[in-house]
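Ticket #4471: structure output looks truncated?

Reporter: J.K.
Steps to reproduce: submitted the chain below (152 residues) through the standard prediction queue, then opened the result file.
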Amino acid sequence: MHQSNRRLIESSQGYTLIEALFSITVFVLLSQIMLAVLIWIEQMNTTELSNNQVAWELFVNDIQQLVLNVREIKLSNDTKSMEIFYTNSSEVKKINRSGDVLRLIVNNQGNTPLLVGIQNAWFTWDGQYMTILVIFNNGIEKERRFFVQNST
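Returned output as attached by the reporter:
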């Protein structure tokens, strides 16, 4: 028995430099992979935010075109939809929320999506300025105030 312990001690050379280098190499590779995954996740989050921003700015541009030559704006009792009446036209445009979409209805016909992926929307009107507050499905809130050009 004494001889077998002696062989075990003599045969074990300890932790070699090659094994240490191999361990460090594996650690560095796994760290690189983890870093790449974290950067990719951050880019996905940024892309989601920028998509909402682009959709919001396009929506704002559409609304700015809708509030030219307005005769009257009527809000619903719950301030979740509005009707726009124009000066030189019998055209009536209504903006309301259906599901997760803000949509435009012209003369009670058809639906044109203006903004998709919203949780809620509110409209306010004080006679000269219209304000729209939107909460997106991911919790981001956007609010914009528009000057309404009256032609009266």
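Triage note (M.O.): checked the attachment and the full token line is present. The first helix runs from residue 2 to 11.
Status: closed, working as intended.
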